[in-house]
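Lay summary. Proteins are chains of building blocks that fold into shapes, and those shapes determine what they do. In this project we predict the shape from the chain. Here is one chain we studied, written as its sequence of building blocks.
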Amino acid sequence: MTIGSGRADGAGRTRRLFTMPSTPSAISQFMDRRQGLLYPAPAVIVLFLIVVLPIAFNIYLAFTKWTVGLGQPIFVGFDNFIDLVSDDRVWNGVKVMVYFSGLSLALRSAWVCSSRFISIASSGAAKSSRRSISFRLRPRRWRSR
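And here is the predicted shape, written in a compact code that computers can read:
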């Protein structure tokens, strides 16, 4: 940016307010190239610390036998998984979970269907003469009073 023109300062030159370097500095070159990586870096680091590290540690623990705080972990391989599949308490828990989920799904479905039926019947959308639910094919037109 320049101020004045011609012989404004008496020497025939224009005075510069600030000058830009002709070659970009190393920092600006780094920022230009790496800027796309620097902005998401804090979020990626937090995600790594909160999600990835605990998952990796749990996978490590799955293949070891270790009481936390007592002694060193001992690598046992797939023995933990074999013990898990052969345990009757685990299969009882799976059975209870399936029953509970099925019962919850059935009760929720019945609740939704009954509430839908009640809302349709109370709104007058059902034809009571046939004793069946019928929906209007065309929406009601609003009448101005």
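What the prediction tells us: The chain has a mean pLDDT of 78.
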